[in-house]
Amino acid sequence: MEKPILTPSDLAAIEAAVREAETRTTGEIYCVAAEESSDYWETPLAWAAGVALLAPALLLLAGVHVEAPDAFVGWTAAQVADAAGAAVRQALIGAVLLQGLLFVLTLILVAIPPVRRALTPRGLKRERVRSRAREQFIAKNLHATRERTGVLIYVSFAEHMAELIADESIAEAVEPGVWDRAMAALTAGLKRGEPAAGFASAIGLCADVLAQRFPPRPGDNPNELPDAVVVLSSD
Q1: For 192, phi and psi rounded to 5 degrees?
Q2: CA distances from 161 to 15, 95, 164 (A)
Q3: Collapsing DSSP states into helix, strand and coil, what is residue 232?
Q4: Which of 37, 41, 106, 197 is most deeply buried (CB count within 10 A of its CB)?
Q5: Cα–Cα dist 166/177, whole Å
Q6: Domain regions of the chain by residue span
Q7: 8-38+121-232: what fold?
Q8: What is the pLDDT of residues 111-128, one digit of tens each?
Q9: pLDDT tens digits for 175-192?
Q10: Does the global pTM surpass 0.85?
Q11: Rounded to an integer, what is the distance from CA 98 to the centroid of its chain?
């Protein structure tokens, strides 16, 4: 059984950090931890197709080439043409078979999760993480808080990437660069192998920012979203 990306104690610590942070602001902080943001199946397909295209070049490097019989040893023109056609067909069949073999072998190799992730361009992974974070922002109703003060902290463990999305009221009041310290703290915790500590630090720093612009109102600070971190499986 694979080790979970967050242990029960991690989940409890992150939930406690969110609960404490939201006592200091009318903002809502929501955490999502994903095992992986995409299956990236286009990566093995692209690599398999690219490697398969090398088949003709590999045949040439191996010394395989098409030759017509010597026309000056008693062969008729028709015999030469027939023999040349047969040689071409054999070469083409060999190239197609080699291409198919290379395609299948490369597809199987690159489909192995660590290999697939390593060979996926970082830009594509970043785009998928951002896309999944935006999906979660909508799916978890962070856009539906009373004062549009939801903040999503999203971590995708397989890609080692994180995203922070703030709703429109916060985005209008806070410069995007303000969140850099929170994201740096989160990333540092993840690199140390201490995800709960990274989340807690980021949550606290986000609360510091929100408390300045959106302080709590005594008797009117409802908890609109669950405090528990959501874990998304890659299955």
Answers
A1: -75, -5
A2: 21, 41, 11
A3: strand
A4: 37
A5: 12
A6: 8-38+121-232, 42-117
A7: Diaminopimelate Epimerase; Chain A, domain 1 (3.10.310)
A8: 999 999 999 999 999 999
A9: 888 999 999 999 999 999
A10: no
A11: 32
- Taking Cα atoms as reference points, which of 182, 217, 176 lies closest to residue 200? 182
Task: Identify residue 181 by its one-letter amino acid code.
Answer: R
Identify the DSSP state of 33: E
Give the Cα separation of 154 and 32 in Å (integer). Answer: 5
Compute the distance between CA of residue 56 and CA of residue 92 in angstroms, rounded to an integer.
Answer: 9
Give the pair of three-digit tokens for residue 67.
Answer: 């030759």
